[in-house]
Specification:
This protein is 79% helix and 0% strand.
């Protein structure tokens, strides 16, 4: 195995990793904004959970139609639409005068952000030779954005900045990404089969792909439900640190993803993360709880490269845009119900039950991965 990826592969991963970070920086800042929105609009926990679900839900719903287009259109145009839409949507969030308008703006943010994953991941799966490493480093870019966005929002709000000003500043990364795409003209050199016909020796839908969707769906419940209100339990700073540790988890698991029987590794890490959630249900607030939350962040995001490799091993290249669209519909669209569930349980003073339920979801996700037969398609 080469010590590092090919130069052309590094270029692909670097550009997409930056865009990945921009997408996640905005989406994962939503939990930090919730307290400010509660004070501004007098929203209860159920309403806050539904606001988060609006952003996360459309994040998943947009992935399927744009995944379909990613298999049939030059992906550079889709990435331009993604970044421009994110910038405009964040302006809408900053200017929202009421809960309904804020929900609409968050829905638009989720919809435009949903373009990225089926497009970016299908590019990596088609052009990067060492896909596990590529997915890992690409995931690290996303995790750095996940950590930087909430850290910036938490720090500026703590210093007394208006949440509207902070949301307005988050427009800047989207504009930088838009400029980068114009300058780099990326991606412009995909292999011919990537943009060709969707005809394939084997279909998208199979028993293994059904298990893959279950892997993503159950993980999505835990992802949305676990992260949406985690800042309330540990604070903005530890929350951002937990997300930053996820960047390390992405790289470590990315190296493991290129190995055979990666499903077993995914199963083990999923069960370990589920165990941490059970500990969060019984630990009192304090240092031990925060330490467990940090470990949860590391493990939760380490699952992503391994999950993505399940798709590239099962689905042929010409269908991967659509395939990643369905997986992100599962993890963010259907999985957004986890945010609504979390809000309802917290409103009913059932935080311990929430962590137990989310742990069960993660264990179910890992178990479903054992039903996937990795075929290693082109």
């Amino acid at each position: 195995m080469r010590p590092w990826m090919r130069r052309e592969d590094r270029r692909v991963v670097a550009v997409l990793g930056f865009l990945h970070g921009v997408v996640h920086a905005n989406i994962l800042s939503i939990p930090i904004f919730l307290l400010a929105w509660q004070l501004e609009f007098g929203a209860d926990d159920v309403t806050l959970g539904l606001l988060a679900a609006a952003g996360f839900g459309f994040y998943g719903l947009g992935a399927v139609p744009f995944g379909f287009l990613a298999d049939r259109r030059p992906p550079g145009r889709l990435l331009l639409l993604c970044t421009a839409g994110i910038a405009i949507s964040m302006l809408g969030v900053a200017a929202s005068p009421s809960i309904p308008v804020l929900a609409l703006s968050l829905s638009a943010l989720g919809l435009f952000s949903g373009i990225y994953h089926p497009t970016g991941l299908s590019i990596i799966s088609r052009v990067v030779a060492e896909q596990g490493r590529g997915m890992g480093w690409h995931g690290m870019g996303g995790s750095l954005g996940i950590a930087a966005g909430p850290a910036f929002v938490g720090a500026t709000l703590a210093f007394g900045w208006s949440w509207r000003s902070v949301a307005g500043l988050l427009v800047i990364p989207g504009l930088v990404a838009l400029t980068l795409l114009f300058v780099a003209r990326f991606p412009s050199e995909l292999p011919a089969p990537a943009l060709g016909s969707s005809r394939s020796p084997r279909p998208l839908w199979s028993r293994s792909f059904a298990f893959i969707l279950l892997v993503y769906m159950f993980a999505g419940f835990a992802y949305q439900g676990g992260l949406t209100f985690l800042p309330r339990f540990v604070g903005a700073g530890p929350f951002a640190l937990a997300l930053a540790l996820g960047a390390i988890g992405q790289v470590v698991s990315g190296r493991l993803a290129d190995r055979r029987q990666s499903q077993r590794i995914l199963f083990g890490l999923s069960v370990a993360a589920a165990t941490i959630l059970v500990l969060l249900a019984v630990l009192p607030p304090g240092g031990a709880f925060t330490t467990a939350a940090l470990l949860f962040g590391f493990l939760l995001f380490s699952l992503e490269p391994l999950q993505n490799i399940l798709v590239t091993g099962e689905v042929p290249g010409p269908l991967r845009g659509l395939a990643f669209g369905f997986t992100f519909l599962s993890v963010f669209g259907i999985g957004s119900l986890g945010a609504a569930l979390a809000g309802w349980l917290i409103a009913n003073h059932a935080s311990a039950l929430l962590f137990l339920v989310l742990g069960g979801f993660l264990a179910a996700s890992g178990t479903a991965s054992l039903g996937v037969r990795r075929r290693g398609g082109p």
